[in-house]
């Protein structure tokens, strides 16, 4: 859902997820890659998908930015640990 949130408040939203979570936060979102952008544009040529239009407006998710924020939160003691499992170009595999 992070791809539907304006980039300017994504880290604030991440912090809020962490604040209200009891045990864990799981973030699954299309990554900001050329392949994912191309796949979404292919779909948009054939379908006026409002969710993909939001992706275009807000931008896909830069997981490096999220990792940097998680590192900072860990340094501050706000989180104990985190794991990242990358599913590269998931959208491409689903759409093509």
How are the SSEs ordered, and which strands pair?
Elements: H1 10-20, H2 34-46, H3 50-58, H4 63-75, H5 90-95
For the biggest sheet, the summary is: none
Number of strands: 0
Helical segment count: 5
Q: Provide the low-confidence segments as ranges.
A: 90-96
Please tell me about this protein's structure.
- The protein is mainly α.
- The protein has one domain.
- Helices cover 54% and strands 0% of the residues.
- It has 5 helices and no strands.
- The chain is elongated.
- The two termini are 21 Å apart.
- Mean pLDDT is 83; it is low at 90-96.
Short description:
The protein has 96 residues and is an all-alpha fold. The protein contains 5 helices and no strands. It has helices at residues 10-20, 34-46, 50-58, 63-75, 90-95.
Features:
single chain, 96 residues, mainly alpha, elongated
